[in-house]
Specification:
It comes from Dyadobacter helix. The protein is elongated, with a radius of gyration of 31 Å. About 65% of the residues lie in helices and about 15% in strands. The chain starts with a helix and ends with a strand. Helix 2 runs antiparallel to helix 7, helix 3 packs antiparallel against helix 4 and helix 4 runs parallel beside helix 5. The strands form two sheets. A five-stranded mixed beta sheet has the order 2-4-5-7-6, with helices on one face. It has two domains: about 90 residues; about 160 residues, Histidine kinase-like ATPase, C-terminal domain (Heat Shock Protein 90), CATH 3.30.565. The longest helix has about 70 residues. With about 280 residues, the chain is an alpha+beta fold.
């Protein structure tokens, strides 16, 4: 079942729930009205000849009927809520898989372009080795994985930035200072790669204007910071609100119900991602 079909099913279940809540309210109101009428009848007939056994029996029957209706409707509503919860979890999984699939092809396209441009250079062999290490990491994680150890992500980003440095040489500097005791914590797979790629995509990188990227820990966050020198024609809003950052934000909301923190000024661009 696709994500769209799941959303349709959830909508129908909610409609079913609303209808039954409405019917339940009508039945409860009707029952209470009948009980009030019965109570008024007893007061009105006080001292007169009336079959109290029949009246009491009717009252007991009415009370039992209302109790049974409440119990049945309560059971139905609980079952509906469980089904909605199950479908919501499945829908979140589809969204996560979709977000993961948006990342990999883009990176492969860039990597192959770099490889093509350097086909006659001596560094091609080492480049291919590092590229293979990057994709070995990607293939080791199936599409349904939601989290990865920070230690594994750092190893991956080191191989990834090694490839990038072959292209940008001294124009790119990536420094990673993460304590070893944090490497067993988790973040979404390829989160660091998304942030590094975002910095490279939007900023000038040259010997004259080098790009400095620093990855470090601050409280319960991993922080990716870079100096800011936007390429000509780049929209500053697109830097902080691009597809990559939006996808990463959605992944955090789906996985951990947390948000990333984006700080943007004239000199530095900083993104903080929670450790899980």
């Amino acid at each position: 079942m696709t994500s769209g079909k799941i959303n349709v099913v959830i909508a129908r279940i909610y409609a079913f729930t609303k209808r039954h809540q409405f019917l339940y309210g009508i039945l409860l109101s009707l029952g209470l009205t009948l009980m009030l009428l019965l109570w008024g009848l007893l007061l009105f007939m006080d001292g007169k000849d009336i079959d109290m056994t029949a009246v009491s029996g009717f009252g007991i029957f009415l009370t039992a009927l209302i109790s049974w209706i409440c119990f049945e409707k309560g059971m139905q509503l609980r079952e509906v809520k469980r089904e909605v919860s199950r479908l919501n979890e499945k829908d979140q999984l589809f969204q996560l898989i979709s977000l993961r699939e948006q990342v990999n092809p883009h990176f492969l396209f860039n990597a192959l372009n770099i490889l093509k441009s350097g086909a006659q250079e001596t560094w091609v062999k080492d480049y291919v080795v590092q590229l293979a290490q990057v994709y070995r990491y990607l293939l080791n994680y199936d599409s349904e994985l939601q989290l990865a150890p920070i230690g594994h992500e750092i190893e991956f980003i080191e191989a990834y930035t090694h490839i990038l440095k072959e292209r940008f040489e001294s124009g790119l500097s990536v420094v990673i200072t993460i304590p070893n005791d944090l490497k067993t914590r988790n973040i979404p797979p390829m989160a660091l790669q998304i942030l590094v790629e975002n910095a490279i995509k939007h900023n000038v990188i040259s010997f004259t204007y080098p790009l400095y990227i620093h990855i470090y820990q601050e409280e319960n966050y991993l922080v990716v910071s870079n100096n800011r020198r936007l390429k000509m024609g780049r929209n500053p809003i697109g830097y902080s609100q691009g597809v990559g950052l939006k996808n990463l934000e959605r992944r955090y909301r789906l996985i951990a119900r947390q948000s990333i923190v984006v700080l943007d000024d004239e000199e530095y661009f900083v993104v903080k991602i929670p450790m899980i």
